[in-house]
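quick one: iron/sulfur cluster bound model?
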Amino acid sequence: MAKKKRVKYIRGQGISQARLAYEIHDLKRHQNLEHYKDVLYQCGKCGTCRTVYKDAYWSPVCPSGEFGKFEPYYLGGKNLLAWALTSGKLNWTNEVAEIFYQCSVCMACIEQCQIPEIHSFAGEWLMCMREEAVKLGYGPMPEQKLYTEHTMIEKNPYMEKHEDRLKWLPSNIKQSPNAKLAYFVGCTSSYREQNVAIATAEILNALNIDFKILKDEGCCGSPVYMTGQVEKAKELAEKNINYFKEAGIEKIITSCAGCYRTWKDTYPNKFGLDHGIEVKHLPEFIRSKLKNGELNFKKELTMKITYHDPCHIGRHMGIYKAPRDVLDKIPGIELIEMTRNRHNAWCCGSGGGVRSAFKDLSAFAARERIEEAKDTTAEAIVSCCPFCLNQFKSNIENNEIQALDLSELIKKVI
Ligand code: SF4
Ligand code: SF4
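yep, here:
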């Protein structure tokens, strides 16, 4: 008989480090609701997922719960609803579906829960509940449906024309037509935070990197996928992959956290589209150049900043160090961390379709983060995601603090 593994309690670290209990259930990521439904009952309704479990003084972590102030909006409540719906004790309604959509899928709650199955997999079933809502006709939310319809035609969720996608591109940017490396710009940098696109292209030029931008790149599909519309998001993914492969691309650099997660994780692991293209987020790429001595920052930038971890590269992909390592190498930069940082970071409130469908919740989350950034006395809140940047800029009042992308800082010192 196979020997049973034991879950260990590690003092000061709870039981999450052992990560053995889910092996008994043989749980995997990116599965359907059927796969997870038997572990939903494991939620003990302890409420630990509402606040930071350790390090950050029990600060709240859940924008949805703190805004809604009602148990269903926290993870514990969502687990109970998911259990009731999957076991036939509750019927789907528009109101129930809305609760699952009033969540930025930031995964801050999941970091806090010490039940191994929930700690590692609740993000999967939060997504599955959206998928289910779409299948049954309760999702997505009307605003999300509208931007999806536009995205399927014009390749962006911003109600812009595809033909305008490259309007940001300055004529002095050098591209190499035969390059195997592409800069995947993404929709937010193409249409809303063009400063990020310009800075990234200029950085690549300054480093003499052979790269090109493909004029017909389309939305990576993240805003469509994150709202449970898997089939449509997969269609967008296939178009991008075929187009990039036909153009001979072997490596992509992106300056967007959402595009990075989607290309690197969702395409191969959720959609089963094994594209074989290497995907790098800009700070990772810059850090590798700094490490191998191909890059040294020449100028100084005297500035006190704080860093906001975007959920899509932080909790979703585990990238916390690369942007900090890059910041550390910029002469003159003083980084002051917010109380909630890295895996405990408070979400900016723009992801998961929240910004389009639940504007008040979205603004509440952004304001909370801006106030936290101001408490550090930093002059600027720096991130490396154009969606976070755009969210901060839209919610900063009277120039109380600056919002910048890391690419903009790098461009100044390169
Ligand atoms: S999800 Fe985890 S932390 Fe939250 S109530 Fe359930 S068991 Fe407790
Ligand atoms: S994913 Fe984020 S917004 Fe959703 S329940 Fe968890 S902490 Fe709250």
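Residues 43-49, 75-76, 79, 113, 115, 118 surround iron/sulfur cluster (ligand 1) (CB under 6 Å).
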